[in-house]
Amino acid sequence: MLSIWLRLRTYWRRRQLDRDLEDEVAFHLETRRARLMAAGATPEEASLQARRAFGSELRAAEGLREVWSFRWLDDLRRDLAFAARAFSRSPVFALTAVLSLALGIGASTAIYAAGYSLLWRPMPVERPDRLVALYQTGPNGLEDSRNFSYPELLDYARQVGDFTDLMGSTGVPLRVRWGTGPELVWGQVVTDNFFSGLRLDMAAGRGFLPREGGPVAVLSYPFWQRRFQGDPRVVGKSIEVNGHALTIVGVTARGFTSTQLFNYVPDVSIPLSAQRIVLPNEGNWMEGRDNRWLTVRGRLRPDVSLAQAEAALNVVSARLARQYPDTNRHLTVHVIPGGARTHGYLVASGAIGVIVMVVGGSVVLLLLIACTNVANLVLARSASRGQEMATRIAIGAGRARLVRQLLTEGLLLALAGGGVGLVVARLVGSLLWSFYPSLDFMTVDPSYDSAVDGRAYLFAFGVSVATAVLFSLGPALRASKGDQMSAIRDRRTRVAPLLVTAQVALCSVLLVAGGLFLRSLQYAQSADPGFDRDGLLIFMVDLHLQGYPKDRGFAFQRDFVRRLKALPGVASVAIASPMPLGPEDEGFRFRVHGHVPAANESMSAGLTCAGPGYFSTVGTRIVAGRGLRESDDAAAPPVVVVNETFARRYWQTPERAVGQRLGFARGKEWIEIVGVAADGKYATFGEAPQPYAFFPILQQYRGRISVLLRTSQSTAAVLSGVRAAARALDPEVPVLGMKTIRQYLERLLSIYQMGAVLLGMFAVCALLLASVGLFGLLHFTVTRRTREIGIRMALGAAGRDVALSVVRGGMMLVAPGLLIGLAGAMAMGGLLGQIVAGVDGRDPVTYGAVAAVTLVVGVAAAIIPARRTTAIDAVQALHCE
Amino acid sequence: MGRQRIDLLLGTLDVLILQCLSRSQRLHGYDIIDWIAHRSEDAFRIEEGALYPALHRLELRGWLAADWGLSDNNRRAKFYQLTPSGRRQLERQKADWRRLAGTMAQVLELG
């Protein structure tokens, strides 16, 4: 060890070493001379004798250097210098190879980092692999999945011994005030054992204690940094949440996100026991067996398997079904691994798997194309360097030495590619995150998420080094057999066209994927959401956060709408909760008067509670009956408006539905259908038509409402008037996130944008790489055929015909590749169709466009080498060898 | 110079250097040569230039520590001293030499 260190140190200070050796020898000679002169010798005699005794200075110096030398480092340096010189002689080759690798490596690193961060990055907890997610399903399976109520959580925790902890949590918006004005943040209400059960590291202070009881809160790391500059003294201070003072007891570790997939960070956590203090109007969340608001995570005991835990849970589930048939019949509990951050529905339905496959598959395809390009380039070069290799072997270069030289060149390429690739990764990464869907007041920690972590770096370099070894080794071994150069040439002409065809095939698959996303973005932008996209503004008001009871809330909403209607330029105003196509959606199970459901018929639909004038304000057509009116209030008989899909499902036509009755599955009361609204989109643009119901908000009170304004004015022009109207009623009520309805819908579009940008970028990179590959091959072919072309021209062939034959040759490679690629995409159409919305996986427009683009780019790549043929001078060509 | 000089056996120089440094604190190359010549009464034929590669080799193996300092006549000189592991190495080599010398003597005398 010591000697390696000493050597390395000396190696980097070679000049110093040389001087030291010189000094030491000089000192020796000088001392000897001085002694001799002291003994009476003349200076000349002394010098001579000193030298004679010392022997050859040169040999001594060489001996010394040999002691210190680091042979392989020296050789490596020489090899690298040689490789750099070789590349500078063919800069086009070096640049294309490095850029190919950089694109392949960069994109794959960025995607790996993003995917890892979104889907797999464990939370900073102890043994994340022992955490699981729980959810239960009803008789209709996955479509009927639910969370847990607090009484259920307690039953499972007490009666199942397979978990050290079962933790529950749910997200809530909270109004936080600390010093400055109020701020709306995304928070969570958690069971007391949430942090201790996760075994989460804390950046400061502590998590919640068992039987926490008091008014306390835990902050997130980003919130702590943003609002408190990371001051550890914040622990013990008090913060106002929804108007109530809570004591800050701790800060979660950096990298903690909610227990959901994706990376929203709950900024303020409060214990379940403080729910009634902070959210007094939402009832008692600890009660109600069918009050299933809790997302549950469990920590498995070390010796328990997933299947055992699931079996034990379902034993208890069957017991609960007998004990509480009203609420717990036909429920099955499921356990999903990787539960620190997961989403039961997305995992179980396989959506995550499909996304990972499509994105991961594209990454692999791109990397393959990049490597193919490099392979092709290295092959071409090794063929054209046959002369050089033969010469070097002739003058006595060892085979091993030659192989090492070529390997060094490959490594240099790969390292350069890997280095530039990291820059590309950073660019791609930040581009990706800029399309991440965001909610107004939710925290995503991009500084943490977009960081290319160490493993991604290693991954990139691993890939680049493997590429180098793979592709240099083959040609290196063959090139070292200098006498078999002709064999290489044959091999190259056999392999290279295949590689180009393969590239075109892979590239057209990516183009189809990108194209489908573009088409689906186009679809989503033009799809009918069920309301008018122009001249409509939306914002939120949350009276729950202000602690309004129901009657005061009704009064506020009524007065507020009245004041808004009086604003200049405002045509109409309505309120709704939850607004369709927003971040929240709500459903209910129902029964239909006179309809006996089949055994596993799904009797559930989405719902919105809307105020009077909702349909006319948002621009939804009423196809039968009437909309919601001022008179549909608590004193009037209950009514509902359903959409067309709902109406047609039970009464065949909208007209026949009017006057019919339905009820909540859990109620006795019947509700009359007074109108039928045109179908719209309610959760995503891609969804199939689904049943939906609109209840009068005056009969179903909601504190958190979206307010809709029909006006031709801009957000900025209206905002101050809206603020003034709110302030006049209650200065503490904030107007949240006012935007146009188009901006509101962007949250949903961003997922399509992200896909289109991501896959589009992939496809463009792939196309670039493939055309470079084709260009390189044809260029090489023309160079090699210079003599033959010369002869043909001398025999009277027209330059144009020769050029055309080159282009035709190129197309012979592109066309089969294209066909294979399109056929492959067609075969995967089903898979692609699952993640794009509103577009068939075999969309003819996409396939046609991909074919056209590929052919045009192919011809363009062939034209430059083809034109070179016309410049070939027959006489010179025949002379040149 | 009446006596015939002996060529150094391979490895002999190393043990001589170690032995020399085991008896004093800190010496530069010239002193070491001087000491060897003095102790052996000039019996060995050492090309002085060969001393330095040997010194550096021992330094690399960690048996000697070296540093630069000023000599008596105020010149920049490299000084060597024995490390603890060098001292152990010396003991091993001395034992080897004694055994070799003893065995050789025994064999030759019986001759």
Query: What is the gyration radius of chain B calculated from CA atoms?
Result: 15 Å
Strand order of the largest sheet of chain A: 3-4-10-6-8-7
The name of the CATH architecture of chain B is Orthogonal Bundle
Q: What's the CATH first level of chain B?
A: Mainly Alpha
> Helix/strand-derived class of chain A?
alpha+beta
Intertermini distance of chain B:
31 Å
Order of helices and strands of chain B: EHEHEHEEH
The number of helical segments of chain A is 30
Secondary structure: number of strands of chain A: 24
What name goes with the CATH superfamily of chain B?
Winged helix-like DNA-binding domain superfamily/Winged helix DNA-binding domain
SSE layout and pairing:
The complex is a heterodimer of chains A (881) and B (111).
Chain A: H1 2-12, H2 14-38, H3 43-54, H4 57-68, H5 71-89, H6 91-120, E1 131-138, E2 141-146, H7 150-159, E3 163-177, E4 183-190, H8 194-198, E5 202-205, E6 216-219, H9 221-228, E7 238-241, E8 244-252, E9 264-265, E10 268-271, H10 275-278, E11 295-300, H11 306-323, H12 325-328, E12 332-336, H13 344-348, H14 351-384, H15 386-394, H16 399-434, E13 443-444, H17 446-449, H18 454-480, H19 485-526, E14 536-542, H20 550-565, E15 570-577, E16 587-592, E17 604-610, H21 614-618, E18 622-625, E19 639-643, H22 644-651, H23 654-657, E20 661-664, E21 671-677, E22 692-696, E23 704-711, H24 715-729, E24 736-740, H25 741-784, H26 786-794, H27 799-827, H28 829-835, H29 844-870, H30 874-879
Parallel strand pairs in A: 4-10, 6-8, 17-22, 19-21
Antiparallel strand pairs in A: 1-2, 1-11, 1-12, 3-4, 3-7, 3-11, 5-8, 6-10, 7-8, 9-13, 14-23, 14-24, 15-17, 15-23, 16-17, 16-20, 18-21, 19-22, 20-21
Helix pairs in contact in A: 2-3, 2-4, 5-16, 6-14, 6-16, 6-18, 6-25, 14-18, 14-19, 14-25, 14-28, 16-18, 19-25, 19-27, 19-29, 20-24, 25-29, 27-29
Chain B: E1 6-7, H1 12-22, E2 27-28, H2 29-39, E3 44-45, H3 51-60, E4 64-70, E5 76-82, H4 84-110
Parallel strand pairs in B: 1-3
Antiparallel strand pairs in B: 2-5, 4-5
Helix pairs in contact in B: 1-4
